[in-house]
Design goal:
Elements (H helix, E strand, L loop, with lengths): L29 H12 L15 E4 L10 H7 L3 E4 L10 H5 L1
Keywords: Membrane, Transmembrane, Transmembrane helix
Length: 100
């Protein structure tokens, strides 16, 4: 794959040859995401309590993996209240300023 845009000195043609393909190694799919939620949410881990207990309200952004129809009822069934931030509203999600 050769990129069509980049930076070079004036008057010189830019050509970069490298392995620039997208890879899925290390990514987080929905199944692993649900497993992670279950690990942190179940009482055996001891870190999350039922509402109105400690750490029982989870504030999430509106990513589709966090709004999946399996996840929301699961969280509510074990006493966790998911609260979703408004889409494209960086005032409530200040980390968006860091990543542009």
């Amino acid at each position: 794959m050769i990129r069509k845009r980049g930076y070079s000195r004036t008057g010189q043609k830019l050509a970069i040859r490298a392995d620039l393909q997208r890879k899925t190694q290390g990514t987080f799919d929905r199944i692993n995401f649900i497993k992670c939620y279950r690990y942190f949410a179940y009482p055996e881990s001891g870190s999350v309590g039922r509402y109105p207990g400690s750490r029982s309200v989870w504030i999430r952004d509106g990513a589709s993996i966090r709004r999946h129809p399996e996840i929301i009822p699961f969280l509510r069934s074990i006493g966790i209240v998911p609260v979703f931030l408004a889409a494209y509203y960086p005032f409530f999600n200040p980390i968006k300023y860091m990543f542009g």
